Amino acid sequence: MKNNIGLKIKTSRKGAKLTQNDLSCDILDRSTLSKIENGYIYPSIPQLMHISKVLNLSISNLFCENITPCNASISSISKKLKELYVNKEYNKIIDTITPYDFITTYYLGLSYYKLSCKEESKALLEKCEGLFCLLHDDLKPLYAENLAIAITTLGRLVINSFSDVENYNYLIKGLNYLEAYNLKNVKTYFIIINNIGAYYLYTYKYEEAISFYGEFLKNNLDILST
Q: Could you tell me the fold of the domain covering 71-223?
C-alpha cells in the first residue's frame, strides 16, 4: 500500500519550486527520493530530518493524513482562515497554521504582511504561485483572486517605489490570472486596473494611460453597466 508521506513531500517540494536534485543529499539520492514521493517506501528518520529542514516543515506535519483534502474540506479551511483574517486575528493564524498548501500559505503570508513582518511574508508569498498550480482545476477559479492578491502584495514587498517597472510587472501578472479565469467583476480586478493606470501616470506615460483605460472601458462595458 502506498503511503501519503511521499505525496506530502512531493507537493511541498513543488510548492517551494525545488527539484528532486535540490532535495537530494548524501543520505538521500534522487532515485530513493522518487520512490519516497511515489509512496513505495518510507523515508528513514535522518532522511525525514533532512527533508523537513529543507522544506521548512515539521516532521509531524509531514505525517499529517490530510494531504489532499477534498474540495469541501479545502473550502471549509479557507472559510475559517478568511474569518480569522477579516477579524484581524493575524497572530492566531500564525500561531495555529502550518503552511502546506496554497490556502494556508496565502493566509499566513498576508498575516505576516499585516504585522509588518516583511521577510516572513515575502518567503511565503513567493511560494503561492507554485502552490496554486498544484490545485485541482476545479479549485483554481475559486482562488485565482487570492493568487492575484498574493502576487500584487509580493510586488509591494520587493519594489523600491511605485514607479518601478517591477511594480508594473507584478500588477500585470496579477491581472493576467484574473482575466484567465474571467474574474473581471471582483474588487481586486478594479484595484489592479486602477494601479496600472496610476503607474502610467507616475511614470509620465500619459498616452499609454489613455490607451489602457480606453481598452479597459471598451472591453468591460457589460460589467460596468451592471
A: 1.25.40
